[in-house]
């Protein structure tokens, strides 16, 4: 309709008013328009129509636009007029598998792709690894493309922003080439105007620009990280070189332990699984290059990685190995060695999957969490990692005094005794289980013995375990297990343990 600019409901309203005038006669003014009837004809709520009527049926995103009665009169007499109708029909359906080429231009940038023998290829660089799934998602936009409204015989495309489209999409099949233009977004309708080249303008039921507003980096076929359903072994090569073995029958006082070092040392199952999850959900999306050179590998520190992680796993009966290399920017790492404090956001780190040509930048937090892969990072942090329910007796030495705690089991219940007097063991249990490594160490004990506990266990592989705490200073004690130095623990934890023993002795 000439003389009426529109971004949304206005052409629909104008057409409806014209139809009402044909039925009722020409309106002398806006106030004569029956909003109930207008709502039935347009499908627009009465509340929205009242707001529009109050403004003379106008929109003002780019200036005042008014539907006047003179313009409505012109609607009846135009030789070729626009016909506006509710659509809801599929107006374009291009089978994705038949598309041989796809390109689109937006903001002066054009991205072009063609389908090759091995999948999609980027026209400007055949080495770019195109994501077939990403391309499929783009093509799906026009496989059953539907319109909410159809504006037939649209003459002035500038009304809809289609004279200078926001985006122009070209799809090619063996039989035909389709050009789809995306125009303005109607804020009133929350839909976009689309021209598919058939002389009509459509309000799209689904905005194609939601999918096509992408950059080249969004279309790369990133390396896959498997889910690691069944992990049999993890090998770490870096500052420490060792393997983690999955063994359900490994020997440990902790029943949950299924991961062990190659020499049989138990690891904390929850910590190992947490590390596997960090690998599984690592964001490999921010690529630095997709065709890395030796010089780029060196610049990223990946010619000699700080850490290489190899995971042997089985998925759906098929065994495979996933390899990830990690390094920090070498220059940055050298400078940071002299710095006292450092924020994760200041870290530049990189990752590479196996021999992939793609190098990714990863966050500082991801770098630190992945680098925490040493034996001390994955072992039990508790000095006693067993189940207290397996403890049948305890011999305690404190301040030169010896105490023997015994237990009697009746079904699932265990009663504790000290010199035949029944005692409450809860505080002692809590204090024992709270003993946690502050720092692992192999330093020999040099200070005074504070407390020693020999735990008698209902455990075939390890029937007895002795934990001795030695004074170091006012803040920590050395924990020695079966004669071997293990870790420093907070002195406060030792004090709590000693107090629990004293409470039992004084009972």
What does this protein look like?
With 507 residues, this protein is an alpha+beta fold. The protein folds into four domains: 10-81, no CATH class; 90-219; 230-377; 388-505, Immunoglobulin-like (Sandwich), CATH 2.60.40. 22% of the residues lie in helices and 35% in strands. The protein contains 13 helices and 29 strands. Strands 3, 4, 5, 6, 7, 8, 9, 10, 11 and 12 form a ten-stranded antiparallel β-sheet that branches. Residues 1-7 and 59-82 have low confidence and may be disordered.
Number of strands: 29
Large-scale geometry:
elongated
Q: How much strand content do the residues show?
A: 25-35%
Q: Helix/strand/pairing class, anyone?
A: alpha+beta
What characterizes the major β-sheet?
A: 10 strands, antiparallel
Distance between the termini: 98 Å
How many domains comprise the coordinates? 4
Instruction: Let me know the average pLDDT.
Output: 88
Radius of gyration: 37 Å
Number of helices: 13
- Report helical residue fraction: 10-25%
Low-confidence stretches: 1-7, 59-82
Question: Helices, strands, pairings?
Answer:
Elements: H1 10-24, H2 35-42, H3 46-54, E1 58-59, E2 65-66, H4 69-77, E3 83-86, E4 90-93, E5 99-106, E6 109-116, E7 119-122, H5 132-139, E8 143-152, E9 167-173, E10 177-186, E11 191-195, E12 201-204, H6 209-212, E13 230-237, E14 241-246, E15 259-261, H7 269-280, E16 287-289, H8 294-299, E17 307-315, E18 318-328, H9 330-336, E19 349-353, E20 359-362, H10 364-371, H11 375-378, E21 391-398, E22 401-410, E23 413-418, E24 421-423, H12 426-434, E25 439-440, E26 449-457, E27 464-471, E28 476-481, E29 484-490, H13 491-505
Helix pairs in contact: 1-2, 1-4, 12-13
């Amino acid at each position: 309709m000439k003389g009426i600019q529109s971004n949304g409901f206005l052409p629909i309203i104008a057409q409806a008013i014209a139809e009402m005038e044909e039925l009722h006669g020409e309106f002398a003014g806006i106030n004569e328009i029956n909003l109930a009837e207008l709502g039935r004809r347009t499908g627009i709520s009465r509340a929205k129509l009242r707001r529009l009527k109050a403004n003379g049926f106008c929109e003002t995103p780019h200036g005042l636009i008014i539907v006047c009665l003179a313009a409505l009169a012109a609607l009846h007499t135009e030789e070729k007029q626009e016909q506006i109708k509710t659509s809801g029909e599929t107006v374009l359906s291009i089978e994705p598998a038949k598309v041989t080429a796809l390109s689109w231009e937006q903001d002066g940038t054009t991205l072009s792709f063609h389908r090759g023998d091995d999948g999609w290829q980027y026209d400007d660089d055949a080495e770019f690894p195109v994501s077939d799934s990403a391309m499929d998602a783009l093509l799906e936009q026009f496989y059953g493309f539907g319109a909410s409204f159809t504006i037939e015989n649209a003459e002035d495309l500038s009304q809809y922003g289609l004279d200078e489209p926001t985006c122009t999409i070209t799809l090619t099949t063996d039989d035909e080439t389709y050009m789809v233009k995306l125009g303005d977004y109607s804020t009133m309708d929350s839909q976009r105007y689309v021209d598919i080249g058939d002389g009509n303008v459509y309000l799209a039921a689904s905005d194609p620009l939601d999918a096509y507003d992408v950059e080249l980096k969004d279309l790369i076929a990133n390396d896959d990280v498997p889910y690691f359903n069944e992990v049999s072994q993890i090998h770490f090569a870096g500052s420490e070189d060792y393997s983690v073995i999955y063994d359900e029958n490994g020997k440990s006082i902790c029943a949950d332990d299924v991961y062990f070092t190659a020499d049989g040392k138990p690891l904390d199952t929850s910590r190992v699984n947490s590390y596997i999850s960090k690998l599984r959900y690592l964001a490999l999306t921010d690529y630095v290059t997709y065709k890395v050179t030796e010089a780029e590998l060196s610049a990223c520190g990946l010619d000699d990685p700080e850490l290489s992680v190899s995971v042997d796993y089985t998925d759906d009966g098929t065994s495979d190995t996933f390899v990830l290399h990690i390094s920090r920017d070498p220059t940055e790492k050298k400078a940071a060695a002299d710095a006292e404090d450092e924020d994760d956001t200041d870290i530049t780190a990189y990752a590479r999957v196996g021999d992939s040509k793609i190098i990714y930048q990863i966050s500082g937090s991801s770098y630190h969490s992945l680098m925490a892969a040493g034996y001390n990072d994955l072992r039990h942090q508790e000095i006693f990692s067993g189940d207290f329910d397996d403890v049948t007796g305890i011999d305690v030495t404190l301040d030169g005094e010896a105490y023997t705690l015994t237990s009697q089991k009746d079904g699932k219940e265990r009663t504790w005794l000290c010199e035949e007097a029944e005692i409450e063991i809860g505080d002692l249990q809590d204090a024992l289980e709270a003993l946690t490594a502050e720092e692992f160490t192999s330093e020999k004990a040099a200070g005074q013995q504070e407390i020693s506990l020999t735990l008698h266990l209902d455990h075939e592989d390890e029937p007895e375990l002795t934990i001795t705490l030695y004074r170091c200073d006012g803040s920590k004690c050395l924990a020695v297990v079966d004669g071997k130095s293990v870790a420093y623990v907070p002195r406060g934890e030792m004090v709590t343990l000693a107090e629990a023993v004293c409470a039992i002795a004084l009972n």
